[in-house]
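INTERNAL TRANSFER SHEET
From: sequence group
To: structure group
Subject: MHC class II antigen

Please process the attached sequence and return the structure record in the designated field. Keep the field labels unchanged so the import script can parse them.
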Amino acid sequence: PPAAGAELSGVFQLIGSLECYFTNGTEKVRFVERQIYNRQEYLMFDSDVGHYVGFTPYGERNAKRANSNPEWMDDMRTAVDTYCRYNYEVFRPFSVERRVPPSVSISLVPPSSSQPGPGRLLCSVVDFYPAA
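Return from structure group:
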């Protein structure tokens, strides 16, 4: 609820997300669907679990409805293959094979009154991918 004296904005947000998690390429793949309303996740399907889970009363009703539909659940359980693995080759060049060379700079840091003595060299390596 809004703070005392504040009015509702009239803006509501509904987000649905489909996520694929890959381990060792397509060896181990996990598919997750999330339904979020106003920053609160109310419903989730996780292929590792194999069914919908509701996190609010509304989400629980929707989970029960979806879980009781065998055709829908078959589609959701195969989304690992039909959605994730199917699209892996499309995104692989931008994710798995992505390489960004580092940007390197070396600068002299002069001595300060708090740290007397000779200056120091500062080497900065930034903007590279992957982190390893």
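Handover comment: Strands lie at 14-23, 28-37, 40-46, 51-54, 103-109, 120-126. The radius of gyration is 24 Å.
Transfer complete.
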